[in-house]
Amino acid sequence: MPNLEWDLEVDVLVAGAGGAGLAAAILAHDAGASVAITEKLPRPGGNTAISTGSVPGAGTRFQRAAGIEDDGARFERDLLALSGSHDADHLVHALAHRSAELVEWLVDDAGIRLDIITDYRHVGHSVPRLHAPSSRKGEDLTNDLLAAVSRRDIPLALSSPVVSLLQDENRIVVGAVTRSADGAELRIGFKKLILCVNGFGQASDLVRRHCPEIAEAMYVGARGSEGEAIRWGEELGARMGNMKSYQAYAAILHPHGELLSWTTIEKGGILVNEQGDRFGDEAIGYSGFAASVKAQKGPVTAIFDQAIYEIAAREPWFKEILDYGAVKPAGSVRELAVALEVDERRLGAAFETYNRAASGEIADPFGRTEFGVAPLKPTFWHARVVPALLSTQGGLMTDAEGRVLDRSGERIPNLFAAGGAVAGISGREGGIGYSSGSGLLHALGLGWIAARTATREIFSESR
Ligand SMILES: Cc1cc2nc3c(=O)[nH]c(=O)nc-3n(C[C@H](O)[C@H](O)[C@H](O)COP(=O)(O)OP(=O)(O)OC[C@H]3O[C@@H](n4cnc5c(N)ncnc54)[C@H](O)[C@@H]3O)c2cc1C
User: Fold this and answer.
1) d(Cα 212, Cα 232) in Å, to the nearest integer?
2) Which residues form the FAD-dependent oxidoreductase 2 FAD-binding domain (predicted)?
3) Contact 283, 266 (CB under 8 A)
């Protein structure tokens, strides 16, 4: 008989204090449940805190005020156009159609400060629909979520990873064990558990197994993402989905480790290899293009011009990377060739072909059709970049209400999940299906939906 004596009992236990966990805890509390959050690391926030904090919402009042027409059906079409059909099409539908309600709930009920971004659309969106803190920093989004948790007096235990799940004699999940840094264990009983522990980017064995294409690239996501949801899910017989899918980034500044804003490429910038040649359609996006950057043998350089620089400089964090000296100017193609140590004629030919394509004179040899404000004119700006894995996009299968499913498609009682722990909405494999904002939409959106389902079940069961 399992030992089911508890040190603490709550209605809803939330494992993980990133975007999914904090949103879930706030909703569950506001729906009347007793809630506790337990976080592995000494600091909350996970990937959410190091993201750029962009949350898509289709049909929000903020879009309407900016004159942007949008709705859930259009958003769903956009997402599926990039990702193709995959294991979690039902989550695409649910999240796209509820995204406006989510963004307005975040602002109105949770007190999160978000602005509609109209300067750029970013990958996968046919209209501007990303909403972000004015700093464009996930840290500010996280701080606002934490403030909402604190205003509600929701207990949040740091440095307290969930180390195991406990089942009763009927194999129903009813409790979890957390272990603090000094080895002290706490047994927490719950009515519902919401797993918000993100994916497995930090677990190199799981990345090699499921996403070998990106396994050798640097991982720049949060270090708490060690894949516990997958390991527990396997033990509990959970169904997994979209396991080969990931979110990557094609342009991490080297050696600084910061993201070069993709606005620089979306607005017309290019990437060249150590011969000074372009090697693909950069406009497929920062995630999809990462595999092409990884396939280059030598250094890769991102290049954009003064007009693009001025657009990107409207983003606060772009100014910060300028301070590192990671992005340098060159007054001509010759100067650029000298700085990159490439053949001037070859680089010049790459520029000429690209600029003619951007002017509509010829078709781009790599099929690029969106050129922003290109053709590129001096002054040029250049930065050495490398690809990186940001987050894995495969995980537990849930239904559209956030309930974890077993291998036969039945729900696993009491178990909910959201965010990077769950099969994502970015396609079945690779990095190409990732639309900007899909990670946070999944985390905040499914966290909010799962908490609503969990609390509804608690109150209907206790009737
Ligand atoms: C550099 C970067 C930029 C990005 N920019 C964007 C963006 O602008 N928009 C977007 O939509 N997405 C973006 N993403 C992706 C996005 O950040 C993630 O998809 C999203 O934050 C996942 O949220 P989450 O709550 O599932 O995980 P997280 O935010 O990582 O939270 C999970 C938490 O669980 C904790 N945890 C792990 N294991 C345990 C355990 N056993 N017990 C208790 N706690 C545990 C972790 O320490 C962590 O705090 C970006 C990612 C990166 C790396």
Assistant:
1) 22
2) 11-427
3) yes
Residue 320 pLDDT more than 80?
no
Q: 374: number of CA atoms within 13 Å, CB side?
A: 31
Q: Could you state, in order of their start, the residue ranges of all structural domains in the chain?
A: 8-242+393-461, 249-389
pLDDT in tens, 44-79: 999 999 999 999 999 999 999 999 999 999 999 999
Whether residue 317 has pLDDT greater than 90: no
The alpha carbon of 417 and the centre of ligand 1 are apart by a number of angstroms equal to 13
**The CATH number of domain 8-242+393-461, selected from 3.30.9.10, 3.30.70.120, 3.90.226.10, 3.50.50.60:** 3.50.50.60
- Res 98 pLDDT > 80: yes
Residues 6+ apart with CB under 8 A from 235: none
Closest protein CA for atom 16 of ligand 1 = 439
Place of tokens 């990133």: 18
Pair 40, 161: CB distance under 8 Å: yes
Instruction: For a ligand 1 pocket test, name from 198, 214, 321 the mutation site with the most ligand atoms within 8 angstroms of its C-beta.
Output: 198
Whose Cα sits closest to atom 33 in ligand 1?
A: 16
How do residues 367-417 score in pLDDT, each as one tens digit? 999 999 999 999 999 999 999 999 999 999 999 999 999 999 999 999 999
- Measured CA to CA in angstroms, residue 117 lies from 64, 74, 235, 314, 436 at distances of 13, 18, 42, 11, 12
| DSSP string for 288-301 | TTHHHHHH-SS-EE
Per residue in 158-206, pLDDT tens?
A: 999 999 999 999 999 999 999 998 999 999 999 999 999 999 999 999 9
What is the distance in A from the centroid of ligand 1 to the CA of 374? Answer: 34
**How far does residue 313's CA lie from ligand 1's centre (Å)?**
26
CATH 3.40.50.300 holds for 249-389: no
Candidate of 197, 223, 396 to mutate for ligand 1, largest count of ligand atoms within 8 Å of Cβ? 197
Average pLDDT rounded to a whole number, residues 246-252: 96
- Give CA–CA dist 201/95, Å, rounded: 23
Residue 402 to residue 416: CA distance in whole angstroms: 5
Q: Are 291 and 248 in contact (CB under 8 A)?
A: yes
| Average pLDDT score, the chain | 95
d(Cα 312, Cα 299) in Å, to the nearest integer? 23
